[in-house]
Amino acid sequence: MYCICKRRCGYCFFEAPQSVEELELVARELKGVTLMANMVETGKTPLLTKEELNQLGYNFII
User: Fold this and answer.
1) Owning domain of residue 30
2) How far is it, in rounded angstroms, from Cα 12 to Cα 30?
3) Residue ranges for the chain with pLDDT beneath 70
4) Which residues pair with 14 in a beta bridge?
5) C-alpha of 28 from chain center
6) pTM, 2 dp
7) In whole angstroms, how large is the CA radius of gyration of the chain?
8) pLDDT of residue 54
9) How many domains in the chain?
10) DSSP helix/strand/coil, 8
11) What does the pLDDT read at residue 7?
12) How many C-beta atoms surround the C-beta of residue 4 within 10 A?
């Protein structure tokens, strides 16, 4: 996975996690960091609801 961490903006974005397990791994390894999830219908990341992503630790969702 490819990670972009924007120190000035204070968030991390991982490019195209391919499973819920990968989303969980990122959230677990970066606990306490503001995480961004990009939900696109044609993307490789499984579509989750805002509530599901919040429960995993993602708090910036586009």
Assistant:
1) 2-61
2) 9
3) 1-9
4) 3
5) 11
6) 0.80
7) 11
8) 95
9) 1
10) coil
11) 59
12) 11
Per DSSP, helices labelled H in the chain are 20-29, 50-56
Q: State the Cα–Cα distance between residues 15 and 26, nearest whole angstrom.
A: 11
What's the confidence (pLDDT) of residue 21?
Answer: 96
Q: Tell me, what amino acid is at 56? A: L
Q: Do β-strands 35-37 and 11-15 pair in parallel, antiparallel, or remain unpaired?
A: parallel
Q: For residues 44 and 16, is the Cβ–Cβ distance under 8 A?
A: yes
**What order of strands is seen across the sheet that includes strand 2-6?**
2-6, 11-15, 35-37, 58-61
Burial class from Cβ neighbours inside 10 Å (0-12, 13-18, 19+) for residue 1 reads exposed
Phi–psi pair at 50, nearest 5 degrees:
-55, -40
In angstroms, rounded to a whole number, what is the distance separating the alpha carbons of residues 41 and 47? 7
